[in-house]
Amino acid sequence: MAMNLEERTLLIKKWVLEAGDKIQILLKNDLSVQQKSNRTDLVTNIDKEIEKYFVEKIRTYFPDELIFSEEGFGNTVTKLDGNIWYLDPIDGTTNFIMQQKNYAVMIAVYEDGVGQIGMIYDVYNNKLYEATKGRGAWVNGEKISQPKNISMRNGLLALNSQIIFRKEFETHRNLGNESLGVRMIGSAGLEMMEVLQGRTALYLASSLEPWDFAPALILIAETGLVTRNFDGMAIDLLNKQSFACGTPQSIKDFLGYLEKKRLQ
Ligand code: IPD
Ligand code: CA
Ligand code: CA
């Protein structure tokens, strides 16, 4: 089905808002929670239902396009050719189970590895973050302006929990000493929306999957922010990897700090 970018954006937005409504209805019943790889890696019936809902829509409207998604209803994606969908039905599942807030529905479309449309829906706060390539980043219809290029010293540092727990990330967590303070939400997508709005200078995650960062990357690209892995390399859209997202200055400060510590 031929559809231009604008039409696709409108359609995806409709799906995302519908998914938010579905979540709120499903939340009225008891959640069924299962463990995946370990005790803290959880999935609920709602994560699965929402992924199935999007997969069905995508396969109806765009039957030739591949889906890179978290809960197993998509495809195996090994190359970036053509249109690829990235889908994280609920980012922040542990928050979803424990708090019923601080989670987001996340979806993106890339064409030959270039981000076209990215959406992150903070259902609890009814905030829809969206970007279509070349048209800026928006939240609930308001354009997000480019955040100030704050340094690590003048900003907050956000971390994912593995950086706090794991021995190998001691240097990374100690970067907190160079910042104004450390914060942690527990949803990669929402952490990046804080960076996008100039409230956090830098977000570090020990390892993220492509569905965790692909939607945010499109919003980030529209607002002059920078993403790198912990080796200072560009983010790879096919693999799990370490992840840093921040103002250009905070990324420079972070990579410079790692280098300085490595040489000590
Ligand atoms: C997780 C969250 C979390 C991040 C993890 C992700 P999920 O996503 O974004 O903040 O630290 O690495 O896996 O599993 O809740 O969709
Ligand atoms: Ca996720
Ligand atoms: Ca998820």
Indicate the topology.
Layout: H1 5-26, E1 33-35, E2 42-44, H2 45-61, E3 66-69, E4 83-91, H3 93-98, E5 104-111, E6 114-122, E7 127-132, E8 137-139, E9 142-143, E10 156-159, H4 161-165, H5 170-174, E11 181-183, H6 188-196, E12 202-208, H7 210-221, E13 226-228, E14 241-246, H8 248-263
Parallel strand pairs: 3-4, 10-11, 10-12
Antiparallel strand pairs: 1-2, 4-5, 5-6, 6-7, 7-8, 8-9, 12-14, 13-14
Helix pairs in contact: 1-2, 6-7
Short key terms for the protein model shown above:
7-stranded mixed β-sheet, binds calcium ion, single chain, 2 domains, Fructose-1,6-Bisphosphatase, Chain A, domain 1, 5-stranded mixed β-sheet, D-Maltodextrin-Binding Protein, domain 2, binds D-MYO-inositol-1-phosphate, alpha+beta, 264 residues, globular, 8 helices, 27% strand
Q: What's this entry about, in short?
A:
A hairpin with a 4-residue loop joins strand 6 and strand 7.
What is the fold named in CATH at topology level of the largest domain?
Fructose-1,6-Bisphosphatase, Chain A, domain 1
Helix content: 25-40%
Gap between N and C termini: 58 Å
CATH architecture of the largest domain: 2-Layer Sandwich
Number of domains: 2
Largest β sheet strand count, sense and barrel closure: 7 strands, mixed
Tell me, rounded to a whole number, the average pLDDT.
97
Which stretches are low in confidence, meaning pLDDT under 50 for 5 or more residues running?
Answer: none
Rg from C-alpha positions? 18 Å
Q: Class of the largest domain in CATH?
A: Alpha Beta
Strand order within the widest beta sheet: 3-4-5-6-7-8-9
Query: How many individual β-strands?
Result: 14
How big a fraction of the residues is strand? 25-35%
Which structural class matches the secondary elements?
A: alpha+beta
